[in-house]
Amino acid sequence: SKKAFIFDLDGVIVDTAKYHFLAWQKLAQELGIEFTPEHNEELKGVSRVRSLDIILALGNIEASQEDKNKWLIQKNEDYLSYLVDMDESEILPGVLHVLEFIKEKKQLIALGSASKNARPILEKTGILHFFDAIVDGNDVSNAKPDPEVFLRAAQLLNVSNENAIVFEDSVAGIQAANIANMISVGIGDATILHEAKYNFKDFTFMDLAFIEAFID
Ligand code: G6P
Ligand code: MG
Fold first, then answer.
1. What is the pTM of this model?
2. Closest-lying ligand to the alpha carbon of 40?
3. How far is CA 206 from its chain centroid?
4. Which residues are annotated as catalytic?
5. Ligand nearest to the CA of residue 49, numbered in listed order
6. Burial of residue 128 (number of CB atoms within 10 Å: 0-12, 13-18, 19+)
7. What is the pLDDT of residues 169-186, one digit of tens each?
8. Whose CA is nearest to atom 2 of ligand 1?
9. Angle between helices 65-83 and 48-58 (to 10 degrees)
10. What is this model's ipTM?
């Protein structure tokens, strides 16, 4: 049967994790909160709303809903300003190669992202056509490590969970894939992503034979 290869977006397909970090850091600074790259690891894969709550908790700040909404808009505007000139050059090394190979082998490709900005990013980078299904932050109500986003993607593709392979750069995303009984592949630091079934520093370290081995 066909396999579903489910890709997270930020930090897996495109290097937007650095832009999310910059935008959150700017806000944290304005609020007088110390926000380090280590703190940022906890925000990877986490929704915008929940990310703000985590940052505010770091600074012991209790805020009104009105202020929170204002900051959420501000963060997203800053984030989007980094994406204005985005094009295919922002696709992370090795990713296109893998997407093309999966297509060539007539397997299925899905996006499983917490981001509400996913579609425009896929369009800007010119890879929207690779995806047989897209599930993003506009479609789900439970954030990773809840497996909802990946379960939906597999469902849309009519593929059972055991036949789904998930590529993730976040701890929360790896946990979500594991909870869903999918095959978790960590992309990034193996120490941080130690719960992943497999791990690659990035896609250039992944041999196409690794992908082929899942296909029957
Ligand atoms: C991804 C990123 C997070 C981001 C979240 C929401 O999971 O890893 O850093 O906060 O998506 O993204 P959005 O584009 O909707 O703010
Ligand atoms: Mg990610």
1. 0.94
2. 1
3. 18
4. 8, 10
5. 1
6. middle
7. 999 999 999 999 999 999
8. 45
9. 110
10. 0.98
